[in-house]
Amino acid sequence: MAKRLLITDLDNTLYDWVTYFARSFSAMVIELARILETGLPVLLEEFREVHRKFGDSERPFAAFALPSVRQRFPGLGPRELKDRLDPAFHAFNSQRKRHLRLYDGVATTLAALRQNGVTIVGHTEAMAVNAWFRLSYLGVAGHFKHLYALENHIDEHPLARPLLIPPPKDFIQFVPRAERKPNPLLLLDICRREKVAVAEAAYIGDSMTRDISMARAAGVHSTLALYGRSYSVEDWHTLVAVTHWTEEDVRREEALRSRCVNERPDAKAANFAELVDLFHV
Asked: What are phi and psi of 225, to 5 degrees?
């Protein structure tokens, strides 16, 4: 049956999130260490604890909550504190501009699919505000009908600048936290909301345990983004050092991996552009 709906993962499917974030984060921490006159291991441990508190490793302005920051600048208000730490935030933004790029073929493929009547929606477990920023920054937000993101109740820092381009009304569709990957109900729910039969939907993602197993359990055509694992070991270790994952999360992931050992995707893609064949564009 011809496919009419593309559900795409974002991080390491449309762009290399691991490389971009690891290098941006590293640049920020190095600058913070200079400002605070503190060792890198201390800051990394503090960031990990803060990330676990918020349940997210991509928490904007997490540096404000670091014990080392409060010890170095006691009594400062948010605005004064932001001024003191601004070089670190600038270092993050500088590396983001350098490393946040779409994978080859993503922009042209999304444009071709949309032009040919394919409905495109994104799904992410990142904070919606961060995901929307990346889609807008990379110039592809206009190809998406909706962005599905987990419910979250994390407030932005009061001094955070508003997004230059807010998302269209109803663009962001929240899904219950109980429907996080790899729960197949997530994809069934998306198909229902988009009014597309499961047999007419296709999913692409970079994770066998979280993406492919979910799609296959839901009966949605699955494509594994092989190119999404091309990041360096060093960058991956940077993320592991400050992950918000708890020991329980690690055990859950190991159990998922064990259950998916014999899982196979319906297709594998060395380039995002290979989706064109699936949709007969």
From this structure: -80, 90
Q: What is the pLDDT of residue 257?
A: 66
| Model pLDDT, residue 137 | 95
Determine the pLDDT at residue 51.
92
Q: Is the pTM of this model over 0.85?
A: yes
Q: Which amino acid is at 131?
A: A
For CA atoms 209, 203, 205, 95, the dihedral sign is negative
Residue 150 contacts residue 175 (beta carbons within 8 Å): yes
3-state secondary structure the chain: CCCCEEEEECECCCECHHHHHHHHHHHHHHHHHHHHCCCHHHHHHHHHHHHHHHCCCCCCCHHHHCHHHHHHCCCCCHHHHHHHHHHHHHHHHHHHHHHCCECCCHHHHHHHHHHCCCEEEEEECCCHHHHHHHHHHCCCHHHCCEEEEECCCCCCCCCCCCCCCCCCCCCEEEECHHHCCCCCHHHHHHHHHCCCCHHHEEEEECCHHHHHHHHHHHCCEEEEEHHHHCCCHHHHHHHHHCCCCCHHHHHHHHHHHHHCCCCCCCEEECCHHHHHHHCCC
pLDDT tens digits, one per residue of 62-76: 999 999 999 999 989
Residue 101 has pLDDT above 90, yes or no: yes
Q: CA 86, CA 88: separation in Å to the nearest integer? A: 5
For tokens 């429907």, name the residue: 179
